[in-house]
Specification:
Number of helices: 12
Strand content: 15-25%
Number of domains: 2
Distance between the termini: 68 Å
CATH superfamily of the largest domain: Vaccinia Virus protein VP39
Order of helices and strands: HEHEHEHEHEHEHHEEEHHHH
CATH topology of the largest domain: Rossmann fold
CATH class of the largest domain: Alpha Beta
Low-confidence stretches: none
Length: about 290
Amino acid sequence: MAYLGNSKNTLEIVKKYNLSIQKKFGQNFLIDSNVLEGIVEASGITKDDCVLEIGPGIGTMTQYLAENAREVVSIEIDKALIPILKDTLSEYNNVTIINNDVLKTDIEEIVREHNGGKPVKVVANLPYYITTPIIMRLFEEHLPIDSITVMVQKEVADRMETGPGSKDYGALSLAVQYYAKPSTVMVVPPSSFIPQPGVSSEIIHLECYKELPVTASDEELMFRIIRAAFNQRRKTMLNSVSSLGEFSKADIQSALEKMGLSSTVRGEALSLEEFAAFSDLLKASKVQ
């Protein structure tokens, strides 16, 4: 069997199927076995695990996952890749391929059917243009997931890990850190892919919290406030949160004062704990 974690075998498949690599799907195929092994190791997969893979491409990483997991369910949006996957994965009887958009797929049903409803491990080489919507969907729907190990654009990985005061800090940082503990695994150069992307990538492991690190009485409100705070970074919290139209400036000012924060403070200065406390104060102001 031909492993695809190198340029020779990958190019052979591309040639065999006269494959047109789809920029619209953000397709870049991994050709570095060290990186593939690094992803599998970081994900902590065992023979007891069911893995949900997003974007298998031509099956490069799927081969590695299938050899290390009990079962792999791969979701691929590109219909043209399905016959190729049937070929490259023909020797594995523990892989299920689903031709669908992951944003429209019933992941809970997949987990019920393939893992008895128990949490799965997600592994993905995510298309850069849709990284954030996919990550946010996995978290916000409180899906049964143990961990997410993904290859993303390096600057996105930086945003996931960073804290208050950094130029990379924003709504994505707070969302990821609310649901999971992020840790970077390795930087991956453009030369590890066909075709080569214009930027470096990074593997990041997100270990999902069994208990959330902070408690907000209204999670949706907290994230509305967070998004408003970073929608226009140069605006103060007073102005950005008032733009939601849910709270008066007096109530916002009062909440900031109760937290010992200046009326000119910006969202980038607040920690996750402070956003949770701030949203709770504002929610309480509506009740009065």
